[in-house]
Amino acid sequence: MARTTPHQHVHPRRTLGDGEPLYRRVAAELLGELRTGAVPPGERLPGERQLAEHFGVSRETVRQALQLLRREGLVATDRRGSHAALPGVPVEAPAAAGFPLGARQAGRDTVARATVAWEVPPPGHAEPLGLTPGRPTLVHRYWSASPGGRERRTAVTSFSAVALAEVEELARYRDRADGTGAAELRRTYDWMRRAGLSLHHRDTITRIASTPSVRVTRQVHDQHARPLELTELVMDAQQDVLVYEFMVPAAV
What keywords were assigned to this record (predicted)? Predict the structure, then answer.
């Protein structure tokens, strides 16, 4: 579950003497996180074990908290597991920090192309992703241009071994990643969250000397500080604009 501030763990001793069952406090805190959009409506929640570690309680306490939220219609459970049932934008809608970086802001008249290949990542990608030099991985390339053919954005993304091991949808691309066919990975961040990964990204913007362009480097890691992906986007600073959106969690 994505967070931008350190989590304050709920400890069983905090409930002694206050007359409130621990599972109700966990349910209230989980509901607060759902309302911040940490898990979009319809998206699967982390498993019981992960939630128990997240809140510092037992799995039985988590089960009781989920049962309470289910009775109130705030969490639903099906064959995929438990997921948020709060009203709001469905998970199928593009995320604010969409993938690939920069694609969401492309205009309707923009020509875009995306491919994926199993190859050695570009220079500078292997070390941040924890990959052995020369080891191939899944590499996604994105390119967009104006109707007149003026190149606007190019982006290359390399995925870590952790991302491929944890995210089933990404792993499936390995056998058909020849670099020629179109790639539809716009829901990559949704897939990662459904796999129980919290997404923390750091974007660095630098000017490219003697050109009107800038380079945006995005590094994404999970709640365990494991690298997931690295993206380098080059965009025309005179013709384009990159918009960042942030959501601040509600106070607990």
Answer: DNA-binding
